[in-house]
Amino acid sequence: MKLRVGAALFGLGVLLLVIAIGLPLYLAPAVTKLPYDLDRTTSKAEAVNARALKVTVVGDSVSIEVPQATLVSTVEVIPQPEATADRLPKELAGKAVVWDVYQTVKNSGGEVFSQYSTELALDRASGAAANWDEQWLNETGAEQTPVGNVTYEGQVYKFPFDTKKKEYPVFDRDLKRATPAKFTGTEDVKGLEAYRFEQRIENETLNTPESNIKTLIGRFAPQATTGKVVYSNTRTLWVDPVTGAYLKVREQQHKEFRPDNGPVTVLLDADFNYTEDTIAKSVETAKDNRLKIGMVRTYVPIGAGVLGVLALLAGMLLVLRGNGGDATARHRLAEAPAGGPSGDDAPVGGPLSDEIPPASTNWRTDEESSTVPAQRPAVDDEAEKR
Fold first, then answer.
1. Phi-psi region for residue 110, left (φ > 0), alpha (ψ -120 to 50) or beta?
2. How far is CA 246 from the centre of its chain?
């Protein structure tokens, strides 16, 4: 019996050690990648007492103003598993996912100030934009958007899993390119440690269509012949270093129209911050994902490793003790008289003795163990081998 239990424990220990080694090597890389079936997410940011350009078109009439209002920016991310499976080229298969993203900026009264939609591919591990020819960006609300009219680069909507304390390129939609976001420290966001990154964009001239420049001149600087839109933004990102998810975002945006003749006009002056509800949901999601990653990377492997070692030691101890008991019993059997029991010459073996009888030849191991022989030979055979 001790041999059977010992062999089972030994086999269980081997299995647990295999799990302890295999989980970090094979399963952990899978849970630190963007899933294909990720749920859609919605985030909101609010800018109180902001000033923003508002263009209203009614028939042939165009109204342009820069009112002051509280603005709410809503960004919705919708993963596209079918597009991921059917439209990505072979070199991106299994390495990237396709997302559709929609943003709308409204005032507290529900009036739309700006909106855009886009489709892009993201690397599943790094979260950076993948090189995909079919990406597009629609900022005008047009029904048809040319495919490939934008080239995404750097981090767009998230950071890599296992984010490092270093500089990352972050894509800016107004500039249509990535600029550095520097690591500036760690901070507590609702009980979760976050890495803080800051991206500074200062007085960059935007690539503005000539028709838009003429419209601005006609409204704000009739005496001018040309002009430009200058853009600044301080973007602060609080990132969960384990998952790379944004926990909190702040954007201090400023745009102004600078004509060659006439006064400068502020087109946008807004300080957008994630709402408290969005921050709370982001932190809760990050905590859940952290736990899943930690279970696969650390907790389960350590637990399985410790239990595996204990099971191996216990199994080996039982096997050694079982073998020692067999040897003592056989020694006593060899010393018994050959003529059978009479008087004081009682048999050593029997129902109350500690002799282990030979196992039947149809005995099989427990299913947990693959290291025990399919059957045990009779005692005489074992003794002969010894």
1. left
2. 12
- pTM (2 d.p.): 0.72
What is the phi/psi pair of residue 213, to 5°? -60, -45
Query: Which of 22, 173, 152 minimizes the C-alpha distance to 96?
Result: 152
Using alpha carbons only, give the angle 209, 211, 217 rounded to the nearest 5 degrees.
110
What's the Cα-to-Cα distance from 92 to each of 87, 89, 127, 131, 132, rounded to whole Å?
A: 10, 6, 13, 9, 8
* 275 pLDDT more than 50: yes
Q: How far is CA 28 from the centre of its chain?
A: 11
Query: Token pair of 300, please?
Result: 């389960």
Phi, then psi, of 231 in degrees rounded to 5: -125, 135
Tokens of 359: 């196992």
Under DSSP, is residue 165 helix (H, G, I), strand (E, B) or coil? coil
Count H helices, E strands: the chain? Answer: 7, 13
User: Residue range 255-265: average pLDDT?
Assistant: 96
CA 267 to chain centre: 38
Q: What is the distance between the alpha carbons of residues 229 and 208, in angstroms, rounded to a whole number?
A: 7
Q: Percentage of the chain with pLDDT > 90?
A: 58
DSSP 3-state of 67: coil
Tokens 């637990």 label which residue? 303
- 3-class secondary-structure state, position 298: helix
Tokens read off for 135: 């990406």
3-state secondary structure of 314: helix
Residues facing 141 on adjacent strands: none
Least confident of 72-81, 251-260, 273-282, 339-348: 339-348
| Torsion on CA atoms 160, 161, 167, 170, rounded to nearest 10 | 20
What gap in Å lies between CA 287 and CA 300, rounded to an integer?
17
Q: Which residues lie below 8 Å from residue 186, measured CB to CB, with a gap of 6+?
A: 193, 194, 195, 196
Cβ distance 221 to 261 under 8 Å?
yes
pLDDT above 60 (res 378): no
Compute and round to an integer the Cα radius of gyration of the chain.
36
Q: Is 145 exposed, middle or buried (0-12, 13-18, 19+ CB in 10 A)?
A: middle
For residue 71, give both structure tokens.
């603005």
Share of the chain above pLDDT 70, in %: 68
What are the Cα distances from residue 246, in Å, to 40, 45, 95, 256, 283? 15, 13, 21, 29, 9
| Backbone φ, ψ for residue 178 (5° rounding) | -95, 145
